[in-house]
Structures are given as C-alpha cells and as structure tokens.
Amino acid sequence: MTVHERPPRARLPSSFRDPAGYVFLEDGLFKRAVTFLGRADYDLFRESGLYEALVKRSLLVPHVEETREPDPEGRVYRTLVPEQISHISYPYEWSFAQLKDAALLTLEVQKTALQHGMSLKDASGFNVVFRGPRPVFIDTLSFEKNTGKAWVAYGQFGNHFLAPLLLMAEVSLELNGLLRSHLDGIPLELASKLLPRQTWMRLGPLMHVHLHARSQKKYAPTGGAEARPKAALESGPDRKAAIVDSLISTVEGVRLPGAKTEWIDYYKELKHYSREAEDFKQSAVRRVVESLRPRLVYDLGGNVGTYSRLVTQQGIDCVCYDIDPLCVNQNYLESKRNGDSHMLPLLMDLTNPTPPLGFGLNERLGFLDRSRPDLTLALALMHHIRITGNVPLARMAEVLARMTRHLLIEWVPKEDRMAQSIMGNRPDIFEDYTLANFQSVFGDYFSQEKAEEIPGTGRTLYLFCNRV
C-alpha cells in the first residue's frame, strides 16, 4: 500500500475539540494531523523557534514530520509523529505535587511562548502527561500568534490547576476528585465558595480565584469562557507576561500542611513481617521481574513505591497505584529526587477505579482501557479489597484477568493479624475467602506458575499467567 492509498484516518474519540488538528492511530503509532485551519499557527510555531526552545528544555514532546504530501481533500496540512508516551494519566489521578508541577510546566510553556511571539490558547490539564516523575506538554497545536489581547486560557488555567491545588492544600487532599466530575476544570465560583476565609487575605488566591470568580459571574452569567467584557479583551496593554509571573508566584506558594494519613507510615510501622520475611518477599519480586523481563508493570496498592522500585531499578517502567494521596505524593517526590525515570505514581481507588469519562464516555479512557501491563503486582492487597471493599474473590479474579498478562499476588489468610484487624468487630460474611476458593476462582482465568510461602507469616506468593 502506497502513502496515497492509505485508508482514511480515524481520529481518536478524545480528539475533536480543536479544528486546528487531531490525533489518530496508524501503524501502531499515535500521530497528529495538522489541518489547513491550523497551518498559519503551526508554521509560526516552527519558524519562530518556539518548538526547538520547548523541546530543548524537555517542556514539550518532540515530533518528526512525515514526508507524505499535504492532503487538501482530507484537509490535512502536516502529519506529525510525536514521541510515544508509554502510559497516559489524567489530572484526577495525580498527587498534589504532580498537579503543582504540571501547573508550573504549563506556565513555563506560556512564558516561553510569549518570548517567541506566541501564546497558549489552551491551558487544560489534559495537555500534560508524565514521563516517569516529570511532566511534559503534549499538545503541539495549543499555540497561536500573540495578538496582544487578553490571555484566552487564563480562566481555564485557574479551573484546571489553581482551584484544585488550593482546595487540596486548604480544605482536603481528596478534593482533587472534583476534577473527575468537572472535566473542564473546577469552576472558580465553586472553588471560591469552598475555600476558607483566610485565602481572601492572600493576594494570589484573592486575585486569581475569588475576584476572578466574581468577574465571571458579573460578565459571563451564562457560562462564557472569559470573565471580562468584550471591549477589555480587544484593547489595552498586553498583560499576559505579568499574569504568568503572578500565577507562578501564586502556585509556588501553595503548599500542603503537615497532614498524616492512615497508610503513610505503613512500612515504617510494619509489624506483621519479620526482617527475614521482608527480605524473602523482596527477593521473590526481583526474581520474577528478572525472569519475565516485562515491558510495563503495575503495582496495585503500592503505597510509597517500595516494591515498585525493585522493578524500576531494573530499567523497567512501573505504574504504582495507591488510594492514599500522601503516599502517592511521597513516592512522586522521592522518584523525582532520585531521577527514577521509570516510576509513575498515580492515585487510584481500586474498588472504584477511573471510569471512561467525557462525551460519548470515550473522551477520557478508563483504568482498564489504557495500557495492558505484562506483569501486575498485587502484594498485601487482596484482604483489603475483599474485606474493606467487600469485593468477592471471583470478581477480583475477573477484573485482574482483564488487566494483565502475568500476576504476582499475595494470598493473605483470614487468620492473618492484618486481616483480623481490618475485619474488626464486623460479622464474618466472607465465606468465599478461603485458600481453596482463591485457587479455584483464579484458576478459571490464570494458570499457576509458582507458589512460595513467605517465611513465618502464613502468607503465600502466587505467580499466575493469564490463559487468554
């Protein structure tokens, strides 16, 4: 098949909002089409030196242009093949520090764009992904010529970044979950109502959230995108650089209080493992990873990444999921300090994982619709999901089988000290939680490759291989 005989490109369901271009999948690669409507801004983006400046500083994913000719009939001016990202994550799966770094990245991208005569027309959190513990901007077509008018993405930045950061720092870390129900960002009016009074005393939150929210209500009562009258948008001095500097100062000043969560000191206070048992378990994980040499690993309930690092130390990408926002935050900060480019910590409640979201329920992919890991670690996890989450073993086995090729799972008997602690005074309604039933229901989907008892614990590590 020649270049001109290729079938029409089918854009991804998530890529439909920008007439300047779209993303599509072809030959196993994600590519970006630049339409003729986006031609002028894209040409300026390349000619101005902005592309080279951003890529040189690792602020933007690099791309190559395909050699195929423009396609006026298909309205495609250029076809770009960007660096392929191994795992896509979304803002509602990020820790506080991740969201803060993504916000500062977006502002640095805008600052650099202004220096090259361009400006961001889109400041969505979905324009950023993480390559390990480093954020990177991925939307090559978010840039337009700077005409000197007001920054059209100013309000969007507040909704996607500043509002959730302030809510996480001032009210509760769990309020990041509002981004899951507000895909266009948390409305500033809502954030202003939720934030405590003391935030009115600080210049950044006052100007960029509270007063901006009032302005939006006054000038855009029907939900307009920009909270200023049209005349203000089209005249006056260019204040974008000053706004960016003010936002950088505001975001840098948002910090978490000294909070403590249930699982943040889990490994420090570990009492149900002896040193021998812990060493055995770590050795077993290393042996499995060395034997399978997976391309991608998930660590479910990975806490602060202790076992995930046994994976990344071997140069293998690992996505470490945990329900505790401080654990994810600590893992991210440690990975960032250590330059662990293979670690991606993410926030996830495995009893209520990220569903497909957005228009058509396919604009943002669900947890099971993204990467398929070659190996999944489920260590000291199943008793939490079975007892706390009340998820039957059969359902657990079904979902894990949909997710992964190989599974290293830790069987924790009901008599285990931690299992008993979790059960507390509740009645024992977990009749399916037996070793025989565990082996039976997981055997419906997996073949058992190995079983090793963890010394002195009553627990067993099982390595399964998916039958499909």
List keywords for this structure.
3 domains, alpha/beta, Rossmann fold, 16 helices, 468 residues, single chain, 15 strands
What does this structure look like?
It is a single chain. This protein has 16 helices and 15 strands. The chain is an alpha/beta fold. The relative contact order is 0.09. The two termini are 32 Å apart. The protein folds into three domains: 80 residues; 163 residues; 192 residues, Vaccinia Virus protein VP39 (Rossmann fold, 3-Layer(aba) Sandwich), CATH 3.40.50.150. It has a seven-stranded mixed β-sheet with strand order 11-10-9-12-13-15-14, sandwiched between helices. Strands 1-2-4-3 form a four-stranded antiparallel β-sheet, with no helix packed on it. Helix 11 links the parallel strand 9 and strand 10.
The CATH superfamily of the largest domain bears the name Vaccinia Virus protein VP39
Instruction: Bin the helical content.
Output: 25-40%
Global shape = globular
Q: In terms of per-residue confidence, which ranges show pLDDT below 50 for 5 or more consecutive residues? A: 1-5, 227-233
* CATH class value of the largest domain: Alpha Beta
For the CA atoms, what is the radius of gyration?
Answer: 24 Å
Tally the helices: what do you get?
16
Mean pLDDT: 92
Report the span from N to C terminus: 32 Å
Order of strands across the main sheet: 11-10-9-12-13-15-14
Quickly give the structural class: alpha/beta
Q: How many domains, in number, for the residues?
A: 3
The count of β-strands is 15
